[in-house]
Amino acid sequence: DAGVIQSPRHEVTEMGQEVTLRCKPISGHNSLFWYRQTMMRGLELLIYFNNNVPIDDSGMPEDRFSAKMPNASFSTLKIQPSEPRDSAVYFCASSSGTGGSETQYFGPGTRLLVL
Amino acid sequence: DQQVKQNSPSLSVQEGRISILNCDYTNSMFDYFLWYKKYPAEGPTFLISISSIKDKNEDGRFTVFLNKSAKHLSLHIVPSQPGDSAVYFCAASGGGSNYKLTFGKGTLLTVNP
Fold first, then answer.
1. How far, in Å, CA of A48 to CA of B95, rounded?
2. What is the mean pLDDT of each run of 10 residues along chain B (113 residues)?
3. Which residues of chain B does A31 touch, with a Cβ-Cβ cutoff of 8 Å?
4. How far apart are CA B98 and CA B50, in angstroms?
5. Which residues in chain A are closer than 8 Å to B51, comparing Cβ atoms?
6. B84 CB-near residues (< 8 Å, 6+ apart)
7. What phi and psi values does residue A51 have, to the nearest 5 degrees?
8. Which of A42, A101, A109 minimises the CB distance to B32?
9. What are the tens digits of pLDDT across the range A4-58?
10. From the list A56, A104, A106, which residue is nearest B97 (CB)?
């Protein structure tokens, strides 16, 4: 079975450029999460979708960040314009329920470097 | 304000011995706790969990203990194997946002042959 798929795996860009990260959740999962991992803050939840609807975006750092889930099999996280402090590993995760007791399955992550 | 804390950034143990990873939390509304394991260049993978109605959950070599009064949980790995070398994250959920996992910063476990 394919797990959560993320692309690209690595992204290097220059400050001011637009960055788009992509995620394909596990088929049949109805919850999708975007996380960011940094040395300073660890793993933080950015946004949570349930049945393709954004439920909680309180973790999105600022207006430069946006996320969409146009259908059950695809989500994007966009940063525009990107800044060096956005450098981090971004993970997408999916689960089959809505509660914290449902196991979240993580993708391999996208390592973003903004120069 | 870290609600889930893993105070040991790293731990080194010998193969065959017990590994004990610790985690403290501050939010008394947390009612479900999980441990994730992460290898380099991979995403975290679920390892074991425990509900607040229990104080112990065991799965093979892995046991999680929960002490609610102390707001403390620990993961025991017995016996430790070199393949267990990874970063271990403690996570918690509950209260008003049941879907949200709050993670600790992780502990790097190294099991030496």
1. 16
2. 91 98 94 94 94 95 97 98 97 75 94 95
3. 99
4. 14
5. 101
6. B19, B37, B77, B109, B111
7. 50, 45
8. A101
9. 999 999 999 999 999 999 999 999 999 999 999 998 888 999 999 999 999 999 9
10. A56
